[in-house]
Amino acid sequence: MNENLNNWEAVIGLEIHVQLSTKSKLFSGASTNFGALPNTQACNIDLAMPGVLPVLNEEVLKMAIKLGTALSSDINSPTSFARKNYFYPDSPKGYQISQMDKPIVEGGYLDIETESGTKRIGVTRAHLEEDAGKSLHDDFEGQSGIDLNRAGTPLLEIVSEPEINTPAEAVAYLKSIHSIIRYLDISDGNMAEGSMRCDANVSVRKKGDLELGTRTETKNVNSFRFVEKAIQYEIERQVHEIESGNTITQETRLYDSQNNTTRPMRSKEYANDYRYFPEPDLLPITLEKDFIESVINGMPEMPNEKKERFVSKFSLSNYDADLLAADKDIANYFEEVVKISDSPKLSTNWIMGELSALLNNENLNIRDSKVSSDKLGQLVLRIEDGTISGKIAKDIFEKMWISGKEVDEIIKDEGLEQVTDDKQIEAMIDEVIKSNPEQLEQYRSGKDRLFGFFVGQVMQASQGKANPKQVNDILKSKLEK
Amino acid sequence: MALSDKELKEITYLARINVKEESFSSLKKELEQILTLFEELNEADTSSVEAMSHPLDLSQPTRKDEVTEENQRDELLKNAPSVKSGLFIVPKVIDGEA
Lengths: 481, 98
Hints:
The complex is a heterodimer.
Chain A: E1 8-19, E2 56-57, H1 58-70, E3 74-75, E4 82-85, E5 95-98, E6 105-106, E7 109-114, E8 117-130, E9 134-136, E10 143-147, E11 154-160, H2 167-184, E12 196-206, E13 216-221, H3 224-243, E14 252-256, E15 261-264, E16 277-278, H4 289-297, H5 303-314, H6 318-325, H7 328-341, H8 344-361, H9 373-384, H10 390-403, H11 407-414, H12 422-434, H13 437-444, H14 450-461, H15 468-480
Helix pairs in contact in A: 2-3, 5-6, 7-8, 7-9, 9-10, 12-14, 12-15, 14-15
Chain B: H1 5-14, H2 24-42, E1 62-63, H3 73-77, E2 83-84, E3 87-91
Antiparallel strand pairs in B: 2-3
């Protein structure tokens, strides 16, 4: 495929299913814990035994209100549930309780950072619905095994407007939603375990065209990287089809991450017809103003607010503030470090540089960091107040990581204080100049480059402990003599 | 309102009801009668009436987010015609793979 993609524009809309982190299910008191033995967390209601009735979990309303507020959406009251009818073994009722006409969250938007600046992506709606169980197809002699532990787990499906135009924008939008749900603590957002799942609606059209092309829906995309790759593949496939004189079929496709392709799902004899109708087992839900306000008042600072505060309070760049604020745990760690170091920029560099590297290396979350925020704060403080050089700080940091010791303890035990006494530095410089007469002569006859050589020699003589700025200043004056 | 054989087949498929060909004509007649009644309803002017999703003018009560149901697997699996390793065993249905 080597069509000229530049002539084409993609139109992308995302449907994101977020599993809400409630203790119990949407309509029953069974547990939602991940990884339990099959069918040990599925009760009469989840199994759709005759005569059972759903009872709504209040917590999901609070979670949806929080998300809607974070997306500047309207909260519908009354909001109501609807039946989506289809038959599948992992859905015992023969229908899914979802929302249709009055979703709890409607409208709103999300601002994402793109290469060409901030872009606003509209949110159509977010509605509550129940998850299905799981079908297992291996080891049952041509039959399927059904585990209904997941059946009835609450989901919030967030639907974007088709206002995303590139795979990179889709990932930025998805990451932003991920960041928000983690901040709000309404889902763990774990894509690998399926707590956050993404379907992508993709169509293409010639640049400048107003009419939308036929879209396909790609399912089964379970990582940020795969979302980008699946959409890229689908755009290229559609352009190739159209430029080869074919048409696009409106269909559902599955992403195959091993081969980086999408392929059509088996087309059914009849098109899906879910025959939605209002759920007769549940009354519409009126959300009192006081209830909504108390939920909103309990909301934490959101990523974009935190980012703006980091920029104004700590004079950080947009880029740094964005990186720090995207993850609540990193943002908290950063603020704890700054409280002690009083140096936002240097603290940022250490968190994003040395600390991130070691965390990644050992696959650790920042909450499990072997160097606590207090200890890193002390280390940055010692660099800032001149006790140690940045170079020695890196060695000390690694020792702190391994031993768990405090920075001051390591400095004292190993005699690593920075040499800042002019006299001591002068003595070292004199010694270096004396033992390198040849280089001195060359330098004085115009070979400026040798300045670096002298700096290196002095730093070596001090075992890296001499204050580099003082070495530079004193050396310059001595060499010029 | 007239119903085609194709539409009737589609309805029986969606409802997963196995209807024999010889019953088609009588079933079609009954369904057409029902649809005619709905057509009558459609003639009523409802433009000034707000859509109602439930006849009771009440708000749905909610429950606290607490786990109240313990593991009842052994009891519940007894209802199933076939079980294995704690799973319900059903005819194989795979939606998705081409």
